[in-house]
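Table S2 (continued). Query chain:
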Amino acid sequence: MAVPALLPPPFPLTPFVLTCGALKANRWIFFPTFAAMRLIRFGSEAVLARIYGRGVLRLLESDAFQRVIVGFIVIAVLGTLLSAVMLWRSTRQPRLRTA
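Corresponding output:
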């Protein structure tokens, strides 16, 4: 149980917690271990945020980064429109004319 408590999303933690309950894991071992692992995980994230936080914020607020993000948004919108048009064209039924 200790390793899944350390892993970040999207790794599913709930199935491991439910499995420990189903297997009737000793709660006096489970809860302290789970709490310690979560403290290590979030504590290390807090330390990294303290060390690198201002630099990351400067990067996110830079003009170059903003332009890259706008470019990705434009590409995503154009790709969505292209996919929608292609899907619409592929699902249209041709009408049969009878004379």
